[in-house]
Amino acid sequence: MNQQLRVNGHKLALAISGPEDGPVVVFLHHGLGAIRSWKGQLEAFNSAGFRVLAYDRFGHGKSESRVQWGMPDFEQDLADLQAILAEFAFAQVSLIGHSDGGNIALLYALKYPQQVNCLVIIAAHIYIEAKMSSGINSIKRQFENDLRFQEQMRRVHAENSESLFWGWFNCWTNPSVQNWDMRPSLAQIGCPTLVVQGTDDEHATPQHARDLAASIPGAQLMLVTGAGHMLPQEQPDQINLRLLRFLEQALAAKFDH
User: Fold this and answer.
1) What are the pLDDT tens digits along the chain (257 aa)?
2) Contact by Cβ (8 Å): 228, 198
3) Cβ-count burial 165-190 (b if 16+ within 10 Å, e if not)
4) CA nearest 15: which of 37, 34, 35, 38?
5) C-alpha closest to that of 15 among 102, 28, 23
6) 3 state SS for the chain
7) In angstroms, how far is the first alpha carbon of the chain from the final one?
8) N or C: which end of the chain has fewer CB within 10 A?
9) Which residues, 6 or more positions from 256, have their beta carbon under 8 angstroms from its beta carbon?
10) Residues 32, 142: contact at Cβ < 8 Å?
């Protein structure tokens, strides 16, 4: 069911589906993404018995336009996620985040550990490396010169397209974030976590995923050979099977105790 929800003074486009008594999974899209970025996952998770929530983050897709951006702290996004969960009275959820959405999931688990059952972190970044910087600049060239890419951005984000791109680009390339590093705080995450990344990710080396998994106690690591940054869209069937197996096992272990 698609709907508009007003939180923290702005409207967000939101989709919720699946059995009302199913365990709740929240999907958090990547930096230039939207609800539709998860079209390869939502139905599969519904069919597996999960209550699924996905939304266009503030400034993305069909949600309200945004002027101020706050990567890599994502304070507004954390506040929005908290407000959404409160609106639906979801006391405990599992979070699946891709790229920037993975960062939001990690930060939310650090800030509100009692609300998070499990984490799946796909192609997220926990520090700036050379490959990330070159990848971001490659996307800038596409946005400025590739008509097909520009049209895709407009199709997904409409009037948000321009402000979203430059807000995202300017935050991640700001000199103030070049020494940013999440690794020291990640040891505080106590919930079951699966870290997923393609070996050919255009924005991160495989070592980045290894460092992320090593920073979280007990985290599992899944490196997908030959896959790129857009893993959920590139290999949805393989990813869905692995993610569903992880969540089902982790939730069974948690609630059997």
Assistant:
1) 679 999 999 999 999 999 999 999 999 999 999 999 999 999 999 999 999 999 999 999 999 999 999 999 999 999 999 999 999 999 999 999 999 999 999 999 999 999 999 999 999 999 999 999 999 999 999 999 999 999 999 999 999 999 999 999 999 999 999 999 999 999 999 999 999 999 999 999 999 999 999 999 999 999 999 999 999 999 999 999 999 999 999 999 877 65
2) yes
3) bebbbebbeeeeeeeeebeeebeebe
4) 35
5) 28
6) CEEEEEECCEEEEEEEECCCCCCEEEEECCCCCCHHHHCCCHHHHHHCCCEEEEECCCCCCCCCCCCCCCCCCCHHHHHHHHHHHHHCCCCCEEEEEECHHHHHHHHHHHHCHHHEEEEEEECCCCECCHHHHHHHHHHHHHHHHCHHHHHHHHHHHHHHHHHHHHHHHHHHCCHHHCCCECHHHHCCCCCCEEEEEECCCCCCCHHHHHHHHHHCCCCEEEEECCCCCCHHHHCHHHHHHHHHHHHHHHHHHHHHC
7) 34
8) C
9) none
10) no
Taking the model in full, what pTM does it have? 0.97
Read off the tokens for 223: 């490196």
Paired with 6 in beta bridges are 11
Q: How far apart are CA 224 and CA 233, in angstroms?
A: 13
Cβ atoms < 10 Å from Cβ of 194: 22
Per the document, the length of the chain is: 257
Domain residue extents for the chain: 2-256
Fold held by 2-256: Rossmann fold (3.40.50)
